[in-house]
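FIELD: query
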Amino acid sequence: MLLPLLCAVALLSATAVPAAGARPGSPDAAGQGGAVVRTDHGLVRGVSHGSYTTFGGIPYAAPPTGPLRWRAPVPAAAWQGVRDATRPAQRCVQMPAPGAGAVTGSEDCLYLNVTVPATKPAGKKRPVLVWMHGGAFLGGSGSDYSAERLAVRGDTVVVTVNYRLGIFGYFGHSQLGAAPPFGLADQQAALRWVRANAARFGGDPGSVTLFGESAGALSICAHLTSPTAAGLFQRAVLQSGSCLTSFPRGALGPGTPAYEPFASLADVQTAGAQAARQLGCTQGGGDEVLACLRRQSTDRLATARLMQSFNRPAFGNGLLPMAPDQALASGRFHRVPAVLGTNHDEMRMFVGLSLAAFPIRTESDYRTRLAEAFGPAAPAVEARYPAADHPSPALAWAAVLTDRSFTCTTLAAGRAIAAHAPGLPLYGYEFNDPDAPVLAGLPANRDFPYGAAHGFEMPFLFPSFPTERPLTDSQRALSDRMVGYWTNFARTGNPNTPDAPLWPTLRPSSPQMPSVQSLVPGPGGIRPVDAYSAHACSFWDRLPQ
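FIELD: result
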């Protein structure tokens, strides 16, 4: 069950959405009159969309193909003339869908996209937002996220990034030594490109905010604890993912193992040795084994089983010397202002994807799932979350997992940060629109409303993100507020603006204080709430993990 579910999660983040640079009009024709910017590697021509301009498919590193497969990114080659940047490049090789034929994406994929307001900045350079997409480290692409609202309404420069996925991004082998997680190394290479080129697009290289959702947020957690990321960003927004995120056994379906987002180098190298045997690359010395692996075709490597065997970045290397949760607990993280947020019904997305295969119809079904996940503690969990207190046993199960795996771990991450950096600006939010548009591709189920599930805040920040219906007027108003909060945080390290409801700082040392900003459409919907109590975090803090 784990393989199909991971495929579905990855595909929800990898839906082919026309990127901003490839949408209205003819990109080729528009590009002839588009803005030209000189980067540190050469000239690029973007495409104008009236109030904003996009530059797509700009290389930030050389193609990681042939001998560069499973190596840290190296600089891209310079070019002569004007490079066409009117459309995004191919996405990185994706986790294949069940029953799919040809592989989607390319190994030649280390490109980024830039969106800027059409007007010149008034005085100061604009703050820069760098987006790391989600998709379980198996799917997604920077070009899936159209950033014009963040750029125009927030007066920012927005950069979206492709990075290597699955076996191409997180493979390890003893013959590679303590190589970094290649996908995370790609992201840091993109941040170095931003530092070198932001000013050329009107951005401030000293005011970079790294933001991302799900696997993107987990990536940011890694960079917060990575010594090689020092100085590459000045602020961080982590959406639905933290350094303490984890799932108990059975969360993704009966029989699925517990999930920790990062793996030891030894575990990844063991998986790499198994993959080498599966691929027939075992003869000769170390150089011959790696040469054999690098000769394998993209299609042979991009199988569902091999891809999902390598979707956890390794620690125990120069980029991640220690597990990020341990680094956070010991105070080994960069002191930058941060926003930590979750959605009210995070796990309804994961549970909803699995119900067709593993329905939870009765209290007995619910009790069985609790027993697998929590063992001897299952009766205590059931007493705190009785099925009768929820519309259905399936929704009770989703509530248990949301609180245990997302909300309470995120608040605990905030406490860990504050313990070592008590004066650091920290803000928390909970997206809680019960009628948020359902993301395209999720199975419909009248008896299982998704509410504010994982990823459902995306359309409020990125207008092209595919949903089953557009935002309503009140949801559009909430979207405006969220864009304002996000971009003002990027500008100042504080999300508050004079015309918006006050967003208080997170008070992790006093968990009973209502310090998390609830984001709900309608009058009074944006206000501080006590998420710690609402999600039973005192219970989870006491429960043995």
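FIELD: remark
The first strand starts at residue 36 and ends at 39.
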